[in-house]
Amino acid sequence: MKSPCTTHSLTPLKSKANKMGETGGGKRWNFGANEVVELSCSQNVRYFLNLLADNLDRNDSRPVIPLGHGDPSPFPSYRTDPAAVEAVCDALRSAQFNHYSTTSGLPIARKAVAEYLSRGLSYQICPNDVHLTAGCHHAIDVLISTLAVPGANILLPRPSYPMYDSRAAFSQLEIRRYDLLPENGWEVDLDAVEALADDKTAAILVINPCNPCGNVFSRQHLQKIAETASKLGVLVIADEVYKDITFGETPFVSMAEFAEIVPVMLLGSISKRWCVPGWRFGWMVTLDPHNIMKDSGLVHSLANVLNMSTDPTTFIQGAIPDILEKTKEEFFSSVLETLRECSESCYEEIKKIPCITCPYKPEASMFTMVKLELSVLEDIKDDLEFCCKLAKEESLIILPGRSVGLKNWLRITFAVEPELLKDGLSRLNKFALRHSKKKQQP
Ligand SMILES: Cc1ncc(COP(=O)(O)O)c(C=O)c1O
């Protein structure tokens, strides 16, 4: 049987792939692995999920419990609203959306997204400022490619959603990391932000509600972030893919409210709130009342990158006005109620597990970060070994904290069916007890 963590995914590039100019079978070929790609993708969630999947014991007849990623769509409690499905079917049946998209998306879809995002805001978003993308991931690709001019740098949170790190590394955009502070409810360390930035800092990323920490920023804190960014002359990238997925005390406030203070690039999608990540529909919105982004040329470059890129499928764009308009409020409230129940049972069960602590009760998104107390464990040296052994012995997938930037922490997804979560946390508890140091007899 393979021992944990010795899978092909950890094999160094040199031994598994031809380097350019080396020979294969005696003949010289002029292509090979791209080391920049290899280095950038070693920082993303899929890389670690594949690694953990390789450690699963195929002889374990129990179902694998996936607490490693945020996609609850396969579970009955999170099935999307029939009205959204109907909207897609209608768009397809109409045969009006089989054509290529226009740059930035179909006008009807841009208008619908502008109206949706303006609900509850103190002003109306203009449809021309909305650019449609194939999920939020695509918006990240486009935006990071646009910002990656030689010498520029970007401020990313630690911990973070690692796609930004991978994408920036791939585009050779320098990454500077500021901390989110667990002791302050995972708020931004604003002093660190000021110390990190210089005149080559293009942007700061703010993920709110937060993946991976499960917190949501207060209005006051968002304002302070906006003021700091304005003082430093940097753009705020507001990733609001978990917009409105909050179930605690703190209400969600959009960074859009602070666009008067600092230019904001608002990113989002229907993936999480509608539980349909496979539909690949998202957006990027330039909130720029003082034309700062426009006059700097950024908006023009963004449109050019979009021109070189793919589009969300046209039939999803055709369906989006009905998806946004007709989805029943009961669907959203039922999903939020399930998430609230799951987050609470996750928090309570974690308290009973000897080697992990949760510094902050999650109140948003689909995740929580917990700290590993390695000193109480007998035969586990770090977060990666913990997760590999957990996958192997308990068929339970949890992400090692290093995958989101915090070594010796874990990121746990609670967005699964409640019964499955209970089973997963009980397996985690058994595993932790089995690997804990045995108490000395007096
Ligand atoms: C913070 C964050 N941003 C962006 C994305 C990507 O979203 P999408 O599925 O719409 O591409 C995710 C997905 O997990 C995420 O957690």
Automatic annotation (TrEMBL):
InterPro entries: Aminotransferase_I/II_large (IPR004839), PyrdxlP-dep_Trfase (IPR015424), PyrdxlP-dep_Trfase_major (IPR015421), PyrdxlP-dep_Trfase_small (IPR015422), TyrNic_aminoTrfase (IPR005958). Transmembrane segments: none annotated. Residues 63-428 form the Aminotransferase class I/classII large domain. Residues 1-25 are annotated as: Disordered. Residues 1-12 have a biased composition (Polar residues). Keywords: Pyridoxal phosphate. It comes from the Eukaryota. Its cofactor is pyridoxal 5'-phosphate. PANTHER family: GENOME ASSEMBLY, CHROMOSOME: A09, TYROSINE AMINOTRANSFERASE. Belongs to the class-I pyridoxal-phosphate-dependent aminotransferase family. This is Aminotransferase class I/classII large domain-containing protein. It comes from Brassica napus (Rape).
